[in-house]
Every structure is written in C-alpha cells, then in structure tokens.
Design a protein that fits this description.
Elements: H1 9-21, H2 29-44, H3 56-69, H4 97-107, H5 115-131, H6 137-148, H7 161-170, H8 172-175, H9 183-193, H10 200-223, H11 226-237, H12 249-277, H13 284-294, H14 297-308, H15 314-321, H16 325-348, H17 355-363, H18 367-390, H19 399-415, H20 427-437, H21 445-448
Protein name: (+)-delta-cadinene synthase
Domain Terpene synthase N-terminal: 7-147
InterPro entries: Isoprenoid_synthase_dom_sf (IPR008949), Terpene_cyclase_plant_C1 (IPR044814), Terpene_synth_N (IPR001906), Terpene_synthase-like (IPR050148), Terpene_synthase_metal-bd (IPR005630), Terpenoid_cyclase/PrenylTrfase (IPR008930)
Length: 449
Amino acid sequence: MINNEDAEMLTILDLLDDIQRLGLRHRFDKDIKRALDDRIVSWDNGHEYDIKAEEKLNVTALKFRLLRQHGYRISQDVFKAFMDDEKKFKKYVESDVKGMLSLYEASFLAFEGENIMDEALTFCRTHLNEVKSMANPALSELVSHGLEIPLHRRMVQSDLKDMSRWWTEIDLARKLNFARDRLMECFFWTVGMIPNPQFNQCRQELTKVAAFITAIDDIYDVYATLDELECFTNAVQRWDLKAVDDLPDYMKLCFMALYNSWGDLCKAFLQEAKWCYNKYMPTFEEYLENGWRSVSGTFLLVHAYFSVSQSITKEALESLYKQHNLMRYSSIIFRLCNDLATSTAELERGETASSILCYMYETGVSEEVAREHIRTLIDETWMKMNKDVVVDDGHPFAEPFVETAINLARIAHCTYQYGDGHGAPDGRAKQNVFSLLIEPISLMKSQQQ
C-alpha cells in the first residue's frame, strides 16, 4: 500500500503518519523513503495529483511535516495558496478543523525566521481552541491532544525486567539512602530517547548511566560538603590521559569524547554547588551556558552515539568532542523544560540559580513574564534544531543518532509537562510511566474476537 501508485496522495500520507505514530517507523524505513522520494517529493517538484479541494490544506500540511521530519527540503511558501494579500490565512480555513490541525502540527517543524509558519501557529492555536468543543468527538480529542503537546514533541515504548534485576543487584538505592530512587523514571527517559526495539542494549546502558547521574546529582545538590565535591570532581578529572598516547587517532577521539562528557558534567554540577554555597546569583547567560551541560543531555547523547551508530566516523567523533549544536539545542530544551517544572522547589531548598530566577533578577520582571520568556526560548531553540536537521552539512551524524537527539528534547517536554516528573513525580507522572511500561495496551472487545 505504501508504494501503490494508484493510491490517493492523502491515503499515502495518512499511512506514513500512522506508521510513525505507532512507533513502527524502523520497520518500514526503506518503504517510507521510497514513498517520499517517488511520490511525495515528485509532487512537490511539479507533478500534479488529483486532490479534492476540501483536502488540500490537510494534504499540504501533512506533506510538509513528513518531509521535514525526514530531512527533506521544503519551503514554507507551499502555504501561500491559503493566505490572502495581507499575508493572513483566508477566512475559509477557520472552518477546516482537520486542515487547521494538520497545519498546526506542521508549524512545529518551522525554522527560525519563517514568518508564514509563525502566523500558522498563532492562527491555528487561536481557532482550534475556539472550535475544539464543536468538532466530532474523535477529532475533538485529537485537537485537545495536539494543543496539549504537538506531535513533533511527543515520544513513544518498551520493557523493564532486566533493569529491575540489575538495580536490585547493585543495591545502590539502599547504599545511598539520601539519593532519589528513580529507576523507572530513568528507563522511561531512555524509552523516550530510543524507542526502537533493535536498540534494546542501548536503552539498558543508558538507563544505568541515567541512574548513576541521578545519584551523583543528589550528592552535589543535597549531601556532600563543598570540599568533598571539589575532591570528587578532581578525582573524575584525573583520568589517565597519558594512557591514550599509543592509541590510534579514532580511539583517542572516542576516549576524549567520553572523558570530556564525564568531566564537563561534574564541573557543571560543582559550579552550581558553588553558586548555592556562596549565595551567588549568576547572570542568565552564565546560568544557561553552565545549565545545558549540567542537565546531562550531552552526556547521555555521547553514550548513546556509540550504541546506535552502525558506523563511527571521524567527523562525527569530532562533533561529539566539540558538542555539536544538535546536542546543545536538545540539551537547552531539556534544561529549560526542567527549570519550568523545578524552579519553585529548588528555591525552597535554598538553591539560588535557575533560568527563571536569573532572568527575574537580571531584568526585574515578574515570575510569569520570566516563564513566558523561557517558553519562547524553548520554541526558538526547536526552530534552530529543526533547521540543523534539514540543512545540508548541518551535522555529520546518521539518522538514528539525530532522532535520538530530537527525542531527548521530546522526552523532556513529556517528563516536565505537569511538574517534576523525574525528581518528584506526582500521581499523573507516575501514571504516565506505569501506563507506558507496565500496563498492556487495551484492545476493543470487538477487536479481540
């Protein structure tokens, strides 16, 4: 069906979208690419397909989103046909709920500076909120979910048994009883980052890394003295660099990428501990430059690279070593989503620095204005990351790692959407983890018969 030349354009697009929503993209990669190359791109290059007038906006927006998700070039100008002379969307678009929803989802694949996509987001968000209660129940539910968190920022699933056994065997939760016991949440993160079944081993290794990071973060945040932290950080940084002298260049790059990721993480943790100990409020720029490192995103991505990459290239290793923008952007989103959820609790614990507090202190604005500024920064960083994925020579990485980096930002949105779903999960956060990892997917009775 994917490559059926007689199938309608919307049928093909819907099928490709359904495959991705079900988390089955890895099983149909070649078929999806063939369909995009042979049917969707050719349509974009001037080949005509018979599309009903009432479906044109939905088809155009769905095509735009799928092509950008898969790294193809497509201009925002495809939406000019739906705009008037004043560069506003035409009145009739307001009554096309399905088309508006598709356009809304497409707007989250925008690049920075794309004014048409900015207008699309504002227009669709406004009118979808107005009409969601008037649409049919199924479409209304899709609209509500989309407004809550768009498709491009969502994640998809796996299982926990092996990790539970490992966690019990090492007994770290009992030995470090001051630290958070967050194995389930750590595994939830790795499922969000790397959902495809063939990367099971990578998920297990990243779960271990994330569990250790959580414990080390608590050592820096709530337990050790400043002198102890400086000793610990120095110990981490005293890995024997001379041991790599006789290694080939590619192995040196591997070692340095791993060495720097551990060293940078502990240095960033220590910097935050010093700010807290000295009651120092950094500038917003100081905080964010340290914060995207301390949030551990680049650290997780360095470890993930060696597990999801079939071929390891010198160019990619150099980009890991230099912390490529793709890693930096997803980590900034991770940090800012975390701060939106945790800043109140951190202030109560006596921690002086978060992006929200630093921005309030520096500019004199209210907390709500500061939070809105952080949300805007998150949107702008998504646009930068979208562009890096699509533009030629934007990165040297293979698709599995690129998707992992994007998924890091997605799982950050998911985890911190309603509060601190990792550090202090409430009932809703725990239910999210439970429903994804423990409860089976329920089927309708008619489907089971």
